[in-house]
Amino acid sequence: MSTNPKQSFLCGLIGAGIQASRTPPMHEREGDEQGLRYMYKKIDIETLGLGTDALPDLLLAAERMGFCGLNITFPFKQTVIPLLDELSDDARALNAVNTVVLRDGKRIGYNTDCSGFGASFRRGLPDAKRDRVVQLGAGGAGAAVAHAALSQGVGQLSVCDSDVARAEALAASLCAQFGAGRAVACTDLAAAMDQADGLIHATPTGMAKYPGLPLPAELLRPSHWVAEIVYFPLETELLRVASAKGCRTLDGGGMAVFQAVDAFRLFTGGVEPDAERMLRHFASMGTR
């Protein structure tokens, strides 16, 4: 690892409504700790008064200004793909990109949501039984988390979504990659939860803007583990209810940090971030 103080990196986050993101301070603090000149800018189309059609121009501007990388969030994780030169295997499999490296005239897309959830799950629930798992949510984040879950040895993933066709499409895609029967679209949530070892939550429910529970509380029992991807607030209503019932829980902070860990490594061309230090910094910022 090189920490030459003359090394400088200019990175950013493109999305809509991203002013509360914890990603910029996580990156900049770690850059400081590594002795780097590291700047991370928020490029918020809402603040800038731009529409979603501005993405090609924003990418071109970032290249011309010398950005080494960009994180990509809602609503661009899929629309950015045609604007890229290469995709990592995960990004191609998920058809979603949240990290773009700008290097040697090329735009290379990655998905660190997938690796971020996987790292958080290994750290927080290393010995959790995972024969049958229910996942709520089949959107962009849900696809990344489902891919990570099956990579972590989940035997069968039951995917539930308010859009049944979306759940069916994700399950079919996962089976094509991981094998027949590894994922199914859930049609009876109560029955699926009755057979499940754990629950992964990958919808916006529980965020400050969308309070509440994503499923009836009575479907949770003490033998379940519950993994959350929402991290603002860090303790969602789902996690409060699950903890009160005696469930093991995993909050969404780990995924937020570990996706940033992987993006930092990609942006810097291999400078190894200190994941534990980034976790401590994340915790110090407050997430309510």
From TrEMBL:
Q: Which domain of life is it from?
A: Bacteria
Q: Name one GO molecular function term.
A: shikimate 3-dehydrogenase (NADP+) activity
Reaction(s) catalysed by this chain, per the record, are: shikimate + NADP(+) = 3-dehydroshikimate + NADPH + H(+)
Q: Name one Pfam family in it.
A: Shikimate_dh_N
Enumerate the residues binding shikimate.
21-23, 73, 98, 113, 231, 259
**Keyword Oxidoreductase found:** yes
Does the keyword field hold Transmembrane helix?
no
Sorted alphabetically, which SUPFAM superfamilies does this protein's record hold?
Aminoacid dehydrogenase-like, N-terminal domain, NAD(P)-binding Rossmann-fold domains
Active site positions: 77 (proton acceptor)
Q: Which Gene3D superfamilies does the record associate with it?
A: Leucine Dehydrogenase, chain A, domain 1, NAD(P)-binding Rossmann-like Domain
Annotated binding of NADP(+), by residue: 89, 137-141, 229, 252
Q: In which pathway does it act?
A: Metabolic intermediate biosynthesis; chorismate biosynthesis; chorismate from D-erythrose 4-phosphate and phosphoenolpyruvate: step 4/7
Q: Provide this UniProt record's keywords sorted from A to Z.
A: Amino-acid biosynthesis, Aromatic amino acid biosynthesis, NADP, Oxidoreductase
| Segments forming domain Shikimate dehydrogenase substrate binding N-terminal | 13-100
The UniProt record lists the EC number as 1.1.1.25
- Role this protein plays: Involved in the biosynthesis of the chorismate, which leads to the biosynthesis of aromatic amino acids. Catalyzes the reversible NADPH linked reduction of 3-dehydroshikimate (DHSA) to yield shikimate (SA).
Q: Quaternary arrangement and interactors, per the entry?
A: Homodimer.
The record ties this protein, via PANTHER family, to: BIFUNCTIONAL 3-DEHYDROQUINATE DEHYDRATASE_SHIKIMATE DEHYDROGENASE, CHLOROPLASTIC (PTHR21089:SF1), SHIKIMATE DEHYDROGENASE (PTHR21089)
> Its family?
Belongs to the shikimate dehydrogenase family.
Matching HAMAP family, A to Z?
Shikimate_DH_AroE
Name the record gives this protein: Shikimate dehydrogenase (NADP(+))
Q: What is the lineage of its organism?
A: Bacteria, Pseudomonadati, Pseudomonadota, Betaproteobacteria, Rhodocyclales
